[in-house]
Design a protein that fits this description.
Blueprint (H helix, E strand, L loop, with lengths): L9 E2 L5 E2 L2 H11 L32 H29 L27 H9 L11 H12 L5 H29 L13 H4 L5 H16 L5 H10 L1
Antiparallel strand pairs: 1-2
Helix pairs in contact: 3-4, 4-5, 5-7, 7-8
């Protein structure tokens, strides 16, 4: 009910509480001119893995002992992520692979079964495979491409196509709402030229949680009506 405060984890600094991020976003936009009052709490979806950008490349330290220690920590984290991925996809019944990250892509509805001409992420993936990035250079597009490349080694082809379709729509949502959310909440000073470019090509993966709830609750029900919401939440957190 309206007076029930249970699960109202999205709290405005003025004291109002809401069940969802879009509701809080609308309230702040209408009542506070887009400026979130001090004390505003955003219960955003976050990844359990800390994923969201390509993994760091190991850089040697001047101390041999420190090098070994750092490399051991990196390998330990990698093994933990591998185990988590295996359990995650096994529970979904799709663990397998490898599959071709470029050829095993969701297709258009046309009879020839060609890769959809409207796919933006596919072309980004093709480009990404040809270049190397420093961790600090990674943008949302890069993180999505890196994720797809990694997962193509771990899931069956049919599920990889579903995963590609999911991220294609996640990216579209980010680019549709990203600048609007960024402007209204005014958390980051913008470069005046940034808004002329797609949000996912400019901003790092740290911005994804800001859009995650809106993507699940508003975007998917309209653009991917048959996509299982429970699976969508799991994939958003896993990514």
């Amino acid at each position: 009910s309206k007076n029930d405060t249970k699960d109202r984890n999205f709290k405005c600094g003025c004291g109002k509480k809401y069940l969802s991020y879009p509701a809080l976003y609308t309230h702040i936009k209408q009542k506070h001119g887009g400026e979130d009052p001090p004390g505003t709490q955003l219960a955003q979806l976050k990844s359990n893995r800390g994923r969201g950008r390509p993994r760091k490349i190991y850089i040697a330290d001047e101390s041999a002992a420190q090098q070994d220690k750092e490399l051991e920590a990196i390998n330990k984290k990698k093994n933990e992520e591998e185990k988590a991925d295996r359990e995650f996809f096994t529970n979904l019944g799709v663990y397998g692979g490898p599959c071709n990250p470029v050829e095993d892509w969701f297709t258009s509805d046309s009879a020839d079964g060609q890769i959809s001409s409207v796919s933006k992420l596919h072309s980004k993936l093709v480009e990404y495979r040809k270049k190397r990035l420093r961790d600090s250079d990674a943008k949302i597009d890069d993180a999505m491409c890196q994720y797809l490349l990694e997962m193509s080694e771990k899931v069956i082809s049919k599920f990889y196509k579903l995963l590609a379709l999911f991220l294609e729509n996640y990216r579209a949502c980010v680019n549709e709402y990203g600048w609007d959310l960024n402007n209204n909440f005014k958390r980051i000073k913008l470069n005046e030229n940034d808004e002329k470019k797609p949000f996912s090509t400019v901003k790092p993966p740290e911005h994804l949680p800001t859009v995650a709830n809106l993507f699940i609750q508003r975007y998917l029900p309209i653009h991917l009506k048959k996509f299982d919401r429970g699976l969508a939440i799991k994939l958003t957190k896993h990514f």
